[in-house]
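#struct-pred
JK: can someone run the complex with fe (ii) ion? inputs below
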Amino acid sequence: MIALDLTREAAREVLPPGVLPSLELGPLALALATWRGRMENEHASSLVFAGLLGQAVEAGASARDQADLAQMILEEQHHARRCAAMLKALGGEPVGRLPPVRPLPRHEDTTRRLAYFRNLLSVCCLSETVAVALIDAERLALEGAVPGQVLKEILADEVGHARFGWRTLEAAGLTAEELADLDRYLQTALPHLVAHELAHLSPLPVPTEALAEAGVCDGALARDVFWSTVEEVIVPSLKKLGLSANRNVSRHAHA
Ligand SMILES: [Fe+2]
Ligand SMILES: [Fe+2]
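RT: done, structure tokens with the ligand placed:
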């Protein structure tokens, strides 16, 4: 595991004014772990976009799209710094470990354009769309508090990341063959998304109000938000693109 130390970066970040809840030792440890986990994941996301940028270049994406992806690398690093600042404000050390970041699949069985589109579908249309919904739900629960403000800043960028994916695929003029390829790809990508998200969302609700105010998420609510996003946003958006999205991914199958 690679160490991640954002101590210097956190010191330069200014958090919005407001009151942070004072927590007892146990809840504080949980709040610190939540923000440390966010910091680590956000920084790891920047590496995912770095990989996607390389594939966009190989696929002959427009200079504009390449610049947008480069911007997303910076935005994810900025999110990590904001989380590091929250960690510091709560009395923690903005130090952690990068989760293992596997390089994006090369998809050597297909064209560079489709390889890029498969990963764009997975990263932006699936993962980032879920991130938008989850962060938005957490932010709403924290309205007016410092942690909510930080999540709001992050959310604005995540919306852009998800939209980039949907917009790019919509404008790509996908052929029937390409749509069929992406449809086949979704047969693995969608169940993978479900397995990944369910493995990372705690099924337990946040135990106390003070913890919720510190930005610890409600796992039961998060699971509900996740399934609603799949059913009400992702599947209809896939259909709009011309993908059948007729997958056996329902909350009932995972109840
Ligand atoms: Fe992010
Ligand atoms: Fe993002």
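RT: quick notes.
The mean pLDDT is 92.
Residues 173 and 191 are 26 Å apart (CA to CA).
JK: thanks, will look after standup
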